[in-house]
Amino acid sequence: xxxxxxxxRYIDRISSPxxxxxxxxxxxxxxxxxLIKLFEDLHLKKLRPPYKFLIVPDINIGDALNHQPFVQxxxxxxxxxxxxxxxxxxAFPLIQANPYIDVHHPLFETSGIPSSxxxxxxxxxxxxxxxxxVFNFCPYMPFSALKxxxxxxxxxxxxxxxxxxxLESGNQKAHLGFQLNQFAREIIHRxxxxxxxxxxxxxxxxxxxxxxxxxxxxxxxxxAQKLGIxxxxxxxxxxxxxxxxxxxxxxxxxxxxxKAVLSMPQVGQVLMNKGLSYRSIENNILDQLPSDLxxxxxxxxxxxxxxxxxxxxxxxxxxxxADTGPMHISAAEKVISDSKQKFRNxxxxxxxxxxxxxxLYGYDSFSDEHLDTSQNAPAKSFEGNPLCKNITCVDKAxxxxxxxxxxxxxxxxxxxxxxxxxx
Length: 423
Hints:
Blueprint: H1 4-14, H2 16-27, H3 30-44, E1 52-56, H4 61-66, H5 68-77, E2 82-88, H6 92-95, E3 103-108, H7 116-129, E4 133-136, E5 152-154, H8 157-168, H9 176-192, H10 202-205, E6 209-212, H11 214-227, E7 234-239, H12 251-263, E8 267-273, H13 281-286, H14 291-294, E9 297-300, H15 306-313, E10 318-322, H16 325-331, E11 333-336, E12 348-353, H17 358-361, E13 380-383, H18 412-422
Parallel strand pairs: 1-2, 1-4, 2-3, 4-5, 6-11, 7-8, 7-10, 8-9, 10-12, 12-13
Helix pairs in contact: 1-2, 2-8, 5-9, 11-15, 12-18
């Protein structure tokens, strides 16, 4: 059986508007939802403790972070379960201290679409561990790589339908983190009809966390000192990079924002990532800035370990990013599990969205349709709104639009004004 994504992509090649209509139509078919749920219940109702689960998120760093609340809710309400988590290898430093994961499998090496090597490793993990249920949330995964003997496989179809309904609703959250929380509660109730052991506070339920140890905090402080990052200065952090041309904030927009930010008297320093997907993008931006403003900028080396990088985002008063992994890292609460020492967790996250709807992955403290961050600071999403935008734009890996219009309608002065208001 092919992955969901392949089937969807074939239709997308014929007509993107037709696929958009089809997905919206199918996601609202209650009979179809009930039928899929019935097949899932044939397996879930037969489960007996102790349970053994495998969670398979999308294979990106941001997704590895965003799927952790699903693991947490499952473990807290089914404490007799053994939960395995297979995810992108590079995300391991951010996941390793999670107290709700029993066994880690940081094996995936590619991003977005699994390679044949990724699929083979996944298959070996499933065969070796003989799980009761595999919860697959990656639409790119073929069913043949997940199914083994009597192992039940929960596909992402119903979750995707719920996300789509949230996107087209004017008063419902579509954010993946929120939808995963809702889905986890439903799964638990279907397994044993238990009362959920969770806080009634919505923000607490949906929190994304990076669990760390005290030695990381100390290493991050030393790195900050070497880089000249001072906590007594207002600090803005810019992530200029992205993994797709359809989510990459256009360079002229980034330059305009940086000129305004660097001119703000309250801003003492600006931290900026080096480009990974788009090499030297930081130099491209620097070359277009006045020389008298550049001395406020510190470029971070790509040699900085990912967990240190996550801790450094806590130094920022404002973090500006496209829809990519660093945005989710900055939005997550940093928790030190073996010390009373605490991170600030006071970073205001600004997400600037192109192809992807901000309701799906963004954070906004001022909108009931969005999820808030796990920071003790406001978040805000800004989004382009071209006429051609529809649900199929989420599948950016196979889009070939030219020219790229994803950021049309974005109001740069509105973004600058919002940053100024934070100070």
